[in-house]
Amino acid sequence: MSRNLIAILRGITPAEVLDHAAALLDAGIEAIEVPLNSPEPWDSIARLLDRHGAQARIGAGTVLTVAQVQRLAGMGARLVVSPDCNPAVIAATRAAGMESWPGVMTPTECLSAIAAGATGLKLFPASIIGPGGLAAIRAVLPPALPVYAVGGAGPDDFAVWRAAGAAGFGLGSALYRPGQTPQQTAAAAAAVVVAWDACAR
């Protein structure tokens, strides 16, 4: 079963990334990003692609430049997630055949991202915009365009966000915090999957 969930492993190190990724995949979360402001992120991404690239959508978060996009493309990554809406980054990502998930907050940013070819939108930070804000913005967006709530949306309020028009979620601290064990990640991932499956029926 494919779930519209992206795990954000912010702060992960190369030495631990494979164990935590395995916990996520075993639970049923098949998309993983390593933010580029994590320790040695390129090493972590390379290890993930080598071990799990065939079975999971692996990529980077906090992608800010075309050069970073090109490096990810050369590695075989599939996901490019950004905190901002940069048309050049979006266009380069799509030209390389990767998914582009730019960060947006306003209708102007949403429509600019769509015009640049974004795969979907990362509503960020979701905690500021809220489900009501998403519902209002959703009214002017293409109905089939996926919007993921990121930054403040979690398993406790999946249903509320889904009702407002969220197609999925990017999850950071709800799944992983630096220093936690793979067993803790597995437990968090299991809870997230249960919550997702309950509201996706």
Automatic annotation (TrEMBL):
Keywords: Carbohydrate metabolism, Lyase
Official protein name in the record: 2-keto-3-deoxy-phosphogalactonate aldolase
Record-linked Gene3D superfamilies: Aldolase class I (3.20.20.70)
Pathway involvement of the protein, from the record: Carbohydrate acid metabolism
Single annotated GO MF: lyase activity
Family annotation (SUPFAM superfamilies): Aldolase
Pfam families according to UniProt: Aldolase
Assembly and interaction partners: Homotrimer.
Family designation: Belongs to the KHG/KDPG aldolase family.
Native species: Paracoccus solventivorans
